[in-house]
Amino acid sequence: MITLPGLKRLSVGVGLIVLAAAILLLSDTASRRKARAVVEASNGNATEHPKRWKLRVLEYVNVADVEECEKGVFTGLRDAGLVEGRDFEQRVLNAQGDMATLNSLVDAALTDQADLIITLSTPTLQAAMQRARSTPIVHTFMASAIAAGVGKSDTDHKPNVTGAYGGADCYGIIEIIRKVMPNAKRIGALSTPGEVNAVYNYDLLVKAATAAGFEVETVGMNGPSEVADAALALCGRQVDLLCIPNSNLVVSAFPSIAKAARQARLPVFGFFSSITKQGALLAWSRDYYDMGRDGGTLAARVIRGESPAKIPLMPATKNRLTINLDVAKTLGIAIPEELLRSAKKQSAP
């Protein structure tokens, strides 16, 4: 006969046995789950995903070339196998050409605790580098990363920065000018001293034009209010054509340049494909969609865990020829057939 004290001792013993069994069961379940995860990972079937990265895409001006580059960025991310909503969430912010706004956008990205900042343009990159000292930055839509202060070479650069870049192919456009206007001798150029990459592109143009025997006449400008007067002054200096180096100021205020050239009946050559829609004769531009895709590919590598410090900068080499045939007809300029075969044609604005 079991006494009351004995019954109590028996109940306690049974409880301890049940508790021990439960602990062993949970331990075994956890071990089996861990083992299964290891097997799945080794087979490439792991279902767990890394954190969802916060991407902030920062732009300085809102023009067609920037939009093309932006599309390229997200194509590069998708081509790398990343999925929006699963691997990253993004916001695209544009400063509309205002530096104060641009600085605020960088600050906002940092306040949002962005994991990665993607910059389109040199001013955007420089603003990000000044404020984001440790946040990873991937740049694109720019001429020279070295001139912008990223580093000394494609492999020796700031530890939190990498990206794609590509200066204007000035030697290429000089060859095209020779084919289109074989008798031309004087080129008119607008310079933008306040933009680092604009100075870089201007120097490339002068070097290429001088080597080919052209004289280069230059007028400088520092803000939107100066563009129209600078263009009119340049058109009055007995030049045979205008060849406009890339700058954010040029692309945002190009209609004023086109108007002055149209009044003077001078053809305009340049390096942004969007300007042919606005009255330029011809553009020999970097393929900004392709450059953006390169930037997106590099961003994907950062998201997957590579350090920007170990990712070399990527120079762009592809170009795109765009010709406005209506402008050519108005000016009485015959475009060589070899150029027409490879060019994208545009209509007058």
Structure description:
By secondary structure, the chain is α/β, with parallel strands linked by helices. The protein has two domains: 53-166 and 288-315, Response regulator (Rossmann fold), CATH 3.40.50; 170-285 and 319-346, Rossmann fold (3-Layer(aba) Sandwich), CATH 3.40.50.2300. Helices cover 46% and strands 18% of the residues. Helix 2 (64-79) links the parallel strand 1 and strand 2. Helix 2 crosses helix 10 (288-303), helix 3 (99-111) crosses helix 4 (122-131) and helix 7 (224-235) packs parallel to helix 9 (254-264).
CATH superfamily of the largest domain: Response regulator
Sum up the overall morphology in one term: elongated
Number of helices: 12
How many strand segments?
Answer: 13
**pLDDT averaged residue by residue:** 88
The CATH architecture designation of the largest domain is 3-Layer(aba) Sandwich
Q: Pick out the low-confidence regions.
A: 18-48
Beta-strand proportion = 15-25%
Note the main sheet.
Answer: 7 strands, mixed
CATH first level of the largest domain: Alpha Beta
Strand order of the largest sheet: 7-6-8-9-10-12-13
What number of domains? Answer: 2
Measured between the Cα atoms of the first and last residue, the distance is 107 Å
Order of H and E elements: HEHEHEHEEHEHEHEHHEEHEEHHE
Structural class: alpha/beta
Radius of gyration, rounded? 29 Å
Q: Helical residue percent? A: 40-55%
Q: Determine the CATH topology of the largest domain.
A: Rossmann fold
